[in-house]
Amino acid sequence: MPKVSQISSVLRLVVSSRRRPFNGFHFVARSYCTSDPPKPSGPLTSYSKLVEQGRLKHDTYQEKVASAFENLFSRLEHFEKEMEDYHVKLAEWEKKREEERRRLMVEEAEKKEEDGMWASMNKHGQKLLGRWVLGRRQMNVEPGVGKWVSYLNRERKLDSIVGSRPAIPPAPKGLYIYGNVGSGKTMLMDMFYSVTDGIIRHRQRFHFHEAMLKINEQMHKYWKENGAEKSSQYSISSWIMNLPVDEKVKEWLAGEEFYKQQLQMKHILPAVADKFLVDQKSSKKGASILCFDEIQTVDIFAIVALSGIMSRLLTTGTVLVATSNRAPRELNQDGMQKEIFDKFISKLEKHCEIISIGSEVDYRRVAAKNSVENVHYLYPLNSAVLEEFEKMWHQVTDQYGGEITSATLPVMFGRTVEVPESCNGVARFTFEYLCGRPVGAADYIAVAKNYHTIFISEIPAMSMEIRDKARRFITLVDELYNHHCSLVSCAETPIDELFQGTAEGTLFDLESFQFETETEDSRLRRDVLAEGSISAAGSPSSIVSMLSGEEEMFAFARAASRLIEMQTPLYLEGVRFLHPYFHQQK
Asked: Which residues, by range, are in coiled-coil regions (predicted)?
């Protein structure tokens, strides 16, 4: 156990300490650019400078990956310009195509009116618009032809009139980096992401949990905006309502427009992908980059959703950079939805260079040994440790001032999470409160974004008996680390003895991978699974076998490695610069 005299000094978020060479630190990848540098240099140059400064120890594997990032970086500025030109041409093409589509539809409707089709419809008592507004079954207004054939014929005419869609410029190959925990994958990816600021307009960096929540949120939004439940006054386009034509013509046009919406709803993932990376603050379109940390396949929904989203992004010119513990072909160990997965991996291999970082060293552990003693992960759970934990809580809250109160944080879709004790960016929980209830990544992200320092007490050793809690705790650690929180905790055992029980079987928590939404969640998931020709009813039983013991060992090793890094002085230095709480205060 650490010495009591060392605790209060190390708890300060800005620490003066002798720096020693280390590698693989998530915060280092971001903290190197905290001093308002001029136009960023390339990733390899940045990496080399950190080695020269003694902040990184030279590693041949990391240098190889940095060189690959440098090659990609050198092509981005030109690619951005190419994509800007492409989007200008695409916008012009889409505008012209929509104008021609409306013109063709009006001509078709007028011709049907001339041929007496509307009189025939009235004779048979078909009142299309009225039935459509009431949400009843659609009438087929084109007997013997069918809406699908009519739609395809119109699309073919548009192709001949407007021409084919502008060709997308060939994108530079992205990177898929895989290897052991603590080998520097995330550090190098974040270094690359940092230097692309100002070069690529549309770029996003997601951890797996955050990405899946974003997909769910965007699906929900799209479904609400385009679903069949929308009232007729919003569903009938204004361009139709304002046409100086007979009401019967408007009825037919409205039906054709609604049919088009139905077709789009059957392909929800491409529609979500098209808005996934767009910077809503920018009116100008260009190239896009997706940096995806810890890519994984945890259930059928994740496989189908990620396959649909990623495939669309890669096809439309997005540059993908991803990290993982596994090579692409080894991601789906249990063979779930093999056909869909294999198609996705083939596309990923076509658009990304696959690189193994190769190092067997966990540099987080090396750095921890080269710094001061671990002093804010306290164990075991005896009276002395609990007393010291209380003392540390009062020291930190006194440092930031303010009254200790409870708080309520918004999560998503109207949900909230309660914080029992908090004060100016500092919050306190018990392990049972955070991990003993059916909560998940969305709750942990909300906590991590709002509090720079988190106190967690009474962390037990985790075995098969509390496997759900163990999975939640791993997810919690991931999000605290991703948001660069300072963590103070007291536990039953040392870090390396915290996760037990993999020899007995897998640790599994279905709830950690089910993403909280409104009541429409089941319908959204059903739509996605249907897009992959999967039975939603059958998915849970398939999920149960999703994680092998080896997968759990990866998750445990990552969590332990991150817990160790989160205690080092240099990690704590980065909190004040990198945590969202301090950005909001500026």
From this structure: 76-115
Strand partners, 289: 203, 319
User: Is the confidence at residue 525, as pLDDT, over 90?
Assistant: no
- The encoded tokens of residue 566 equal 């989160």
**Same domain flag for 165 and 256:** yes
User: Would you say how long the chain is, in residues?
Assistant: 586
* Residue ranges making up the domain that contains 449: 369-502+549-585
Q: Which residues contact 269 (CB under 8 A, 6 or more apart)?
A: 219, 304, 305, 308, 309, 312, 528, 531
- Bridge partners of 504, per DSSP, are none
Highest mean pLDDT among 21-30, 121-130, 419-428: 419-428
Backbone angles phi, psi at 56, to 5 degrees: -130, 145
How far is 559 from 571, CA to CA, in rounded Å?
A: 15
Output b/e per residue, 409-438; b: 16+ Cβ within 10 A. Answer: bebbbeeebebeebbbbbbbbebebbbeee
Structural domain count of the chain: 2
Q: How far is Cα of residue 251 from the mean position of the Cα atoms in its chain?
A: 41
pTM, two decimals, is: 0.67
pLDDT in tens, 188-212: 999 999 899 888 888 889 888 888 8
Give the pLDDT confidence of 334-363 residue by residue, as tens digits.
Answer: 777 888 888 889 999 999 999 998 766 666
Which amino acid appears at position 340 of this protein?
I
pLDDT digits (tens, 9 = 90+) for 495-521: 888 886 544 444 433 333 333 333 344
Whether 222 is in a domain gets the answer: yes
Q: Which of 117, 440, 491 is nearest to 299 (CA)?
A: 440
Token reading at 550: 């080896």
DSSP 250-314: HHHHHHHHHHHHHHHHTTHHHHHHHHHS--TT-SS---EEEEEES----SHHHHHHHHHHHHHHH
Give me the CATH number covering residue 163: 3.40.50.300
121-135, 164-178, 213-227, 463-477 — which one is most confidently predicted on average? 164-178
